[in-house]
Amino acid sequence: MSANERSPPAGPVLHPARRPWHVCMASVAAGLGLASAPPLAPLALGAAEAAALALAGARRLAPLAGVLVVLAAGVGELRLEALDRPADLVEDGRHVQLFAYALTRPRPSPFGASIEVAVAGGRLEGARLLARVPQWSRVPRADPGEELRLRGRLRALDFERRDRGGSGESFDFAAHLRRRGFAGELLLDHARPTGRRRGGLDGLLDGLRGRAERAVAAGLPPPEAALLRGMVLGQDEAIDRATRDDFRDSGLAHLLAVSGQNVMLLVALALPPLAAAGLGPRARGVALLALVALYVPLAGAGPSLQRAGVMAAAGIAALTLSRPASRWYALLLAAAATLLLNPRAWADAGWQLSFAAVAGILVLGLPLGRTLAAAGESLTGGGGPLARAALRGMSEGAAITIAASLATAPLLAHHFDSVPVAGVPANLLALPAVAPAMWLGMLKAGLGIVSPLLPESAALAELVGPPARVPVAFLAGLAERFADLPGGQLGVPVRGSAALAFAYAALLLAAAGVRSLARRSSGRAQEAAAAWRRRAGPRRTAHVAATSVALLVLVVRAISPPGPPDALTVRFLDVGQGDATLVQHPDGTAILFDGGPPEAGVARLLRRAGVERLALVVATHASRDHHGGLAAVLAERPVDLLLDGGDGTRDPAFRALLRSARERGVPTRPAAAPLTLRVGALVVRILSPPPRPPGPPPEDPNPRAVVAIVSAGEFDLMLSADAESEALLPLALPDVDAMKVPHHGSADPGLAAVLERLRPELAAIEVGENTYGHPTPQTLGALRRAGVPTYRTDRDGTVALTVVEGRMEVDTER
Predict the structure, then answer these.
(1) 376 Cβ neighbours under 8 A, 6+ residues apart
(2) When you count CB atoms within 10 A of the terminal residue's CB, does the N or C end of the chain come out lower?
(3) What is the pTM of this model?
(4) Do the Cβ atoms of 488 and 420 come closer than 8 Å?
(5) What's residue 13's pLDDT?
(6) Helix, strand, or coil (residue 686)
(7) Long-range interactions of 18-22: CB distance < 8 A, separation 24+
(8) C-alpha span between 783 and 126 (Å, rounded)
(9) How many angstroms separate the CA atoms of 768 and 626, rounded?
(10) At what angle are helices 222-233 and 200-217 packed, to 10 degrees?
């Protein structure tokens, strides 16, 4: 063979013949992704790829690449058979009693709670099940790794769930669970911890994770502790729904999903101490590989973290062995590795977003970062080494943020029908806080892991808590404010694969156009930069200072929390399947009836409404979807008076709420009729219930829930919690301007008579996704026949009713 035949063909550096390993790895990844496709699909793709490579001049590589596609598809099919084997053993409808290890803590939902478990023995040993706890059952307390004795009914993965958020597109929940490796569901009748824990490597990781979690939370209030656990360890079950929505709507959701950013920051945190310890390059590489190998399973090993771990390992190995590193090859290797573990992973939105973000950074971010850095140095004249390093860091951070946001925008529109327009500025402002939050959280986690060897580490983790709270609270506040910006969400549904491909093609064309325009205008830009540098130093400083101040003022105005409204405002808060009604007077008085379920995060909704102090909180009755969120309200807001509608209940959560009020010095008073309270400019009249007769409290608290009229001048609002017509009709009901429909719009035969007495001009139903059929067609029909305009929080989001000069105006969140 001649030398010419041995050399790769001449041509551009990206010619496939010059990147044989890249082509082979891409072929393997493509074949694995086609494992569940029709049998001819891998053959067709392999033939098409071989033909394309042959036409491109890589004739010797062409057949190998085509064969790799087909072979990888075969390996993927074998892998899918192994993954699906436990699902074949799940007998739909069969009642079982089994032992299983908890993989996660219970996660609240509108229908109760769910726990991920792994069966510990028997025919289903090793199978992952999603155990569902119904609303009426007690949720077991279980930490990951604890053994549970479970009794319930199996449900196979052969069903579909309701459509996705009203988009009209069916969401196949069974496919979602299958992609995540679940064999089926278990509808629980009973769950009890046995006191045992799993052993082996999994048990060791459980212990390490538990110590890390406790250390991360040490010294932090519960909201910040939940956020930092989510950011560092991926344990996000304690983050309330409202906060999660804020991070999603502001474009900061990636901070709560452990990903490549975490691995990069972990390596950056570990390198200085490893170098200071005098370790050589190879020893440092081995230590970093061990650290990444520990962190990935410790933080949950989700698809994005698997991708980051493989890419980090490839980069570290290349540096350790003094080999040239290729980011594209590392990305392809990560794709092949994650698909080998689960060939269905590519269909997961998180997997797609993770790889799209990295590809966007490689295509757009790296050149954009160099351009921004060059432009900054041209404008500033360079400066010293420290200034240039800071400028490069800021330029790279801004470029990565912009590139990742652009690259993931079509996928966000495809999966969620909207794009967070506020995401780019929110992420830019978040940059200074992300690294400190992550590093302090990782330091706390590390202190927890070594606590058996270093007893003082627990105290050290506690001391790191207050400094860690600063960046975490800043990020939470940033997410909250940017989520609320008008126009922060752009509704652009991208339906179907063709539309998604078109969106990415348009994005690439736009990027190419901007790049071409930048090249053509580079001369004018250099002239402008030279003219700027010729200006006197004081004038440049003055211009920069004025611009910085103007930008700072705009940012502060944008992210500052709102003040109280200028007019009387009633907010029927969207807390899912639950009740929470906020009444605000322009004199600053605010009163709250109920707080929804705990996971709804009503305290965050109060911040969003500009509430700093509550003159009155009314707990209408003992029901989790009404009083559950009030504990967080008492913890975060000064409250002048709590009206106790518990009616002598023995409910432990309600009694804990009253105990918390006493501990915080909040006065309490029974909500027994007749009672009239003047709260600022508002008047609250309690119409029901009357004082409870002697004896135990009733089993059903709904009929004796607090019924109240809130008045401000000529405006009257009727609030009746879950008390329906049977409790309302015996009362002296006045004409009102607005009302909250009782009991989330449940079926109530006497509602028409209630409406005839009240004669409201507007009604709101506080309701969320539920299995009860709320609001029922009968209730909606009664409201329609009475001619009452009706709003629903499940469709409209939070409904704000404002009274301006005697007129009612309504604004909805959606």
Answers:
(1) 391, 394, 395
(2) N
(3) 0.77
(4) yes
(5) 45
(6) strand
(7) 19/329, 20/58, 20/61, 21/329, 22/326, 22/328, 22/329, 22/332
(8) 52
(9) 13
(10) 140
Q: Is the peptide bond before 493 cis (omega within 30 degrees of 0)?
A: no
* E-only strand ranges, 166-311: 184-197
From residue 354, alpha-carbon distances to 32, 35, 307, 420 in Å are: 18, 21, 8, 17
And the tokens for 306? 């698997």
Phi, psi of 389 (to 5 degrees): -65, -45
- Give the pLDDT confidence of 761-793 residue by residue, as tens digits: 999 999 988 878 899 999 999 999 999 999 999
Instruction: Please say if the pLDDT value at position 338 is more than 80.
Output: yes
Residue that is written with structure tokens 């040239």 in the block: 324
Residues 6+ away with beta carbon under 8 Å from 64:
24
Helix%, strand%, coil% for the chain, nearest 5: 55, 15, 30
- Which residue is associated with the tokens 């009991």? 743
pLDDT bucket at 321, cuts 50 / 70 / 90: low
Strand order of the β-sheet with 715-719 is 675-679, 682-688, 707-712, 715-719, 738-740, 762-765, 790-792
Q: Which two tokens stand for residue 254?
A: 């990636």
The arithmetic mean of pLDDT across residues 354-377, rounded, is: 81
Pick from 680, 684, 706: nearest CA to 594: 706
The structure tokens 């913890």 sit at 635
Strand order in the sheet with 807-812: 668-670, 642-644, 616-619, 590-593, 581-584, 568-572, 799-804, 807-812
Q: Are 442 and 269 in contact (CB under 8 A)?
A: yes
What's the longest Cα–Cα distance across the chain?
104
Question: What digits encode the pLDDT tens for the residues 415-439?
Answer: 888 888 878 888 888 888 999 999 9
